[in-house]
Amino acid sequence: MVQDISSANTISEIDPDCFRTILRSAAASVVVITTCADGELHGMTATAFSSVSADPPSVLIVVNRTTRSHSRLLRSGRFAINVLAEDQEWIGQRFAGKIEDQFSGVGHIATAEGLPVLTGCAAHMECRTQETVDVGTHTIFVGRVVAGKAEPAAPLLYHDGRFKALAPSREAS
Ligand SMILES: Cc1cc2nc3c(=O)[nH]c(=O)nc-3n(C[C@H](O)[C@H](O)[C@H](O)COP(=O)(O)O)c2cc1C
Questions:
Q1: Residues of the chain whose pLDDT is less than 70?
Q2: pLDDT value of position 6
Q3: CA dist., res. 113 & res. 149, Å (int)
Q4: Considering only CA atoms, which of 154, 72, 82, 141 is closest in space to residue 111?
Q5: Substitution site in 20, 32, 33, 47 for ligand 1 pocket (most atoms within 8 Å of beta carbon)
Q6: What ligand 1 atom has the least distance to the C-alpha of 66?
Q7: Among 2, 101, 113, 135, which has the minimal tally of Cβ within 10 Å of its Cβ?
Q8: Residue 96 contacts by C-beta under 8 Å, 6 or more apart in sequence?
Q9: Within a domain: 36
Q10: SS3 assignment for 130-152
Q11: How confident is the model at residue 106, as a pLDDT?
Q12: Straight-line distance from the first to the last Cα atom of the chain, in angstroms, rounded to the nearest whole number
Protein backbone atom coordinates (compact mmCIF):
# COMPACT_ATOMS: atom_id res chain seq x y z
CA MET A 1 0.00 0.00 0.00
CA VAL A 2 1.39 3.42 -0.93
CA GLN A 3 0.72 6.32 1.42
CA ASP A 4 0.96 9.80 -0.03
CA ILE A 5 2.35 12.23 2.51
CA SER A 6 3.38 14.89 0.02
CA SER A 7 0.59 17.19 1.18
CA ALA A 8 1.82 17.02 4.78
CA ASN A 9 3.79 20.12 5.72
CA THR A 10 4.87 19.03 9.16
CA ILE A 11 5.39 15.73 10.94
CA SER A 12 2.38 16.48 13.16
CA GLU A 13 0.16 16.18 10.06
CA ILE A 14 1.17 12.52 9.58
CA ASP A 15 -1.34 10.32 11.33
CA PRO A 16 -0.01 7.42 13.46
CA ASP A 17 -1.11 4.71 10.97
CA CYS A 18 0.67 6.49 8.13
CA PHE A 19 3.76 6.88 10.31
CA ARG A 20 3.75 3.14 11.10
CA THR A 21 3.31 2.26 7.41
CA ILE A 22 6.30 4.40 6.49
CA LEU A 23 8.44 2.71 9.15
CA ARG A 24 7.45 -0.77 7.88
CA SER A 25 9.29 0.10 4.64
CA ALA A 26 12.64 0.30 6.42
CA ALA A 27 14.60 -2.91 6.98
CA ALA A 28 16.53 -3.24 10.24
CA SER A 29 18.87 -5.67 11.95
CA VAL A 30 17.30 -7.54 14.83
CA VAL A 31 19.14 -7.33 18.15
CA VAL A 32 18.51 -8.60 21.64
CA ILE A 33 19.42 -6.05 24.29
CA THR A 34 20.59 -7.88 27.39
CA THR A 35 21.43 -6.64 30.84
CA CYS A 36 21.94 -7.84 34.38
CA ALA A 37 20.24 -5.83 37.13
CA ASP A 38 20.50 -6.86 40.79
CA GLY A 39 21.93 -10.22 39.73
CA GLU A 40 19.03 -11.05 37.37
CA LEU A 41 19.48 -11.49 33.63
CA HIS A 42 17.03 -9.88 31.24
CA GLY A 43 16.73 -9.47 27.48
CA MET A 44 14.52 -7.75 24.95
CA THR A 45 14.21 -7.97 21.16
CA ALA A 46 14.75 -4.61 19.46
CA THR A 47 15.33 -2.98 16.09
CA ALA A 48 15.75 0.60 17.34
CA PHE A 49 19.51 0.48 17.48
CA SER A 50 22.07 2.68 15.72
CA SER A 51 25.72 3.55 15.76
CA VAL A 52 26.35 7.12 16.92
CA SER A 53 30.06 7.83 16.83
CA ALA A 54 33.33 5.99 16.21
CA ASP A 55 35.30 8.25 18.57
CA PRO A 56 34.41 7.50 21.24
CA PRO A 57 32.72 4.30 20.04
CA SER A 58 29.07 4.90 20.85
CA VAL A 59 25.70 3.43 19.97
CA LEU A 60 22.10 4.10 20.92
CA ILE A 61 19.06 1.99 21.65
CA VAL A 62 15.47 3.18 22.02
CA VAL A 63 13.37 1.49 24.70
CA ASN A 64 9.67 1.80 25.47
CA ARG A 65 9.15 2.89 29.06
CA THR A 66 6.41 0.25 29.49
CA THR A 67 8.87 -2.62 28.98
CA ARG A 68 10.31 -4.61 31.86
CA SER A 69 13.72 -3.88 30.35
CA HIS A 70 13.44 -0.13 30.86
CA SER A 71 13.83 -0.03 34.65
CA ARG A 72 16.42 -2.79 34.56
CA LEU A 73 18.53 -0.86 32.04
CA LEU A 74 18.35 2.26 34.20
CA ARG A 75 19.34 0.27 37.30
CA SER A 76 22.22 -1.67 35.75
CA GLY A 77 23.76 1.21 33.80
CA ARG A 78 25.06 -1.20 31.18
CA PHE A 79 23.80 -3.40 28.40
CA ALA A 80 24.89 -5.72 25.64
CA ILE A 81 23.62 -5.58 22.08
CA ASN A 82 23.42 -9.03 20.49
CA VAL A 83 23.04 -8.83 16.70
CA LEU A 84 21.03 -11.93 15.84
CA ALA A 85 22.17 -14.26 13.06
CA GLU A 86 19.68 -15.28 10.37
CA ASP A 87 19.08 -18.70 11.99
CA GLN A 88 18.11 -17.06 15.32
CA GLU A 89 14.56 -15.92 14.51
CA TRP A 90 13.30 -18.10 17.37
CA ILE A 91 15.44 -16.05 19.78
CA GLY A 92 14.02 -12.81 18.33
CA GLN A 93 10.52 -14.15 18.95
CA ARG A 94 11.36 -15.47 22.41
CA PHE A 95 12.73 -12.15 23.70
CA ALA A 96 9.81 -10.20 22.23
CA GLY A 97 7.44 -12.03 24.60
CA LYS A 98 6.77 -11.48 28.28
CA ILE A 99 7.99 -14.90 29.38
CA GLU A 100 9.75 -15.72 32.63
CA ASP A 101 13.03 -17.66 32.61
CA GLN A 102 13.93 -16.00 29.31
CA PHE A 103 17.42 -17.51 29.08
CA SER A 104 16.38 -21.14 29.59
CA GLY A 105 17.60 -23.10 26.56
CA VAL A 106 19.32 -20.04 25.09
CA GLY A 107 23.14 -20.34 24.92
CA HIS A 108 24.85 -17.45 26.68
CA ILE A 109 27.98 -16.52 28.57
CA ALA A 110 28.69 -13.94 31.27
CA THR A 111 31.31 -11.38 30.26
CA ALA A 112 33.85 -9.57 32.40
CA GLU A 113 31.40 -6.64 32.41
CA GLY A 114 28.89 -8.96 34.05
CA LEU A 115 26.61 -8.93 31.00
CA PRO A 116 24.93 -11.93 29.37
CA VAL A 117 26.02 -12.34 25.75
CA LEU A 118 24.12 -14.77 23.53
CA THR A 119 26.11 -17.39 21.64
CA GLY A 120 25.79 -17.88 17.87
CA CYS A 121 25.08 -14.20 17.12
CA ALA A 122 26.47 -12.26 14.14
CA ALA A 123 28.05 -9.76 16.54
CA HIS A 124 27.80 -8.35 20.02
CA MET A 125 28.77 -5.15 21.81
CA GLU A 126 29.03 -4.39 25.52
CA CYS A 127 28.07 -0.87 26.50
CA ARG A 128 28.07 1.40 29.53
CA THR A 129 25.20 3.88 29.56
CA GLN A 130 26.50 7.41 29.06
CA GLU A 131 23.29 9.33 28.69
CA THR A 132 19.52 8.86 28.56
CA VAL A 133 17.02 11.06 26.73
CA ASP A 134 13.24 10.71 27.08
CA VAL A 135 11.31 11.19 23.86
CA GLY A 136 7.55 10.59 23.86
CA THR A 137 6.86 7.05 25.08
CA HIS A 138 10.49 5.95 24.78
CA THR A 139 13.93 6.52 26.26
CA ILE A 140 17.07 6.74 24.17
CA PHE A 141 20.02 5.08 25.91
CA VAL A 142 23.39 6.19 24.54
CA GLY A 143 26.05 3.60 25.32
CA ARG A 144 29.82 3.75 25.22
CA VAL A 145 31.04 0.52 23.62
CA VAL A 146 33.72 -1.07 25.81
CA ALA A 147 34.00 -4.49 24.15
CA GLY A 148 32.58 -6.42 21.24
CA LYS A 149 33.13 -9.01 18.56
CA ALA A 150 31.86 -9.74 15.04
CA GLU A 151 31.39 -13.28 13.73
CA PRO A 152 31.14 -14.47 10.10
CA ALA A 153 27.37 -14.97 10.21
CA ALA A 154 24.67 -13.21 8.19
CA PRO A 155 22.36 -10.97 10.27
CA LEU A 156 18.63 -11.49 10.80
CA LEU A 157 16.49 -8.65 9.40
CA TYR A 158 13.02 -7.29 10.18
CA HIS A 159 10.99 -5.68 7.41
CA ASP A 160 7.29 -5.06 6.81
CA GLY A 161 6.37 -6.78 10.08
CA ARG A 162 8.32 -9.98 9.36
CA PHE A 163 11.68 -11.55 10.12
CA LYS A 164 13.71 -11.99 6.91
CA ALA A 165 17.13 -13.06 5.65
CA LEU A 166 19.46 -10.96 3.51
CA ALA A 167 18.96 -11.45 -0.24
CA PRO A 168 21.97 -12.92 -2.09
CA SER A 169 24.41 -10.29 -3.32
CA ARG A 170 23.56 -8.92 -6.79
CA GLU A 171 27.20 -9.39 -7.81
CA ALA A 172 26.82 -13.14 -7.33
CA SER A 173 24.10 -13.47 -10.00
C1 LIG B 1 11.20 -7.13 15.64
C2 LIG B 1 10.90 -6.41 16.94
C3 LIG B 1 11.55 -5.23 17.24
C4 LIG B 1 11.30 -4.53 18.42
N5 LIG B 1 11.99 -3.38 18.68
C6 LIG B 1 11.79 -2.73 19.85
C7 LIG B 1 12.56 -1.57 20.16
O8 LIG B 1 13.43 -1.15 19.41
N9 LIG B 1 12.31 -0.95 21.35
C10 LIG B 1 11.35 -1.39 22.22
O11 LIG B 1 11.16 -0.78 23.28
N12 LIG B 1 10.62 -2.51 21.95
C13 LIG B 1 10.83 -3.20 20.80
N14 LIG B 1 10.12 -4.33 20.53
C15 LIG B 1 9.14 -4.82 21.49
C16 LIG B 1 9.78 -5.59 22.67
O17 LIG B 1 10.59 -6.65 22.23
C18 LIG B 1 8.64 -6.17 23.54
O19 LIG B 1 7.85 -5.11 24.04
C20 LIG B 1 9.16 -7.02 24.69
O21 LIG B 1 8.08 -7.77 25.21
C22 LIG B 1 9.76 -6.20 25.83
O23 LIG B 1 10.19 -7.13 26.79
P24 LIG B 1 10.33 -6.76 28.32
O25 LIG B 1 9.04 -6.13 28.77
O26 LIG B 1 10.61 -8.09 28.98
O27 LIG B 1 11.48 -5.82 28.44
C28 LIG B 1 10.35 -5.05 19.35
C29 LIG B 1 9.70 -6.25 19.05
C30 LIG B 1 9.96 -6.92 17.87
C31 LIG B 1 9.26 -8.24 17.58
A1: 1-12, 172-173
A2: 53
A3: 14
A4: 82
A5: 47
A6: 25
A7: 2
A8: 44, 45
A9: yes
A10: EEEEEECCEEEEEEEEEEEEECC
A11: 98
A12: 29
Alpha-carbon Rg for the chain, nearest whole angstrom, is: 17
Q: How far is CA 38 from CA 45, 76, 101, 112, in A?
A: 21, 7, 15, 16
Within-domain flag for 21? no
Residue 170 lies in a domain: no
Q: Residues lining ligand 1, judged by CB closer than 6 Å?
A: 30, 44-48, 62-64, 67-69, 96-98, 158
What single letter denotes the amino acid at residue 44?
A: M
Domain ranges, residue 64 = 28-158
User: At 46, which CATH number?
Assistant: 2.30.110.10
Total domains present in the chain: 1
Beta strands in the chain (DSSP E): 28-29, 31-37, 40-46, 49-54, 57-64, 78-83, 108-110, 116-118, 123-135, 138-150, 156-159, 162-165
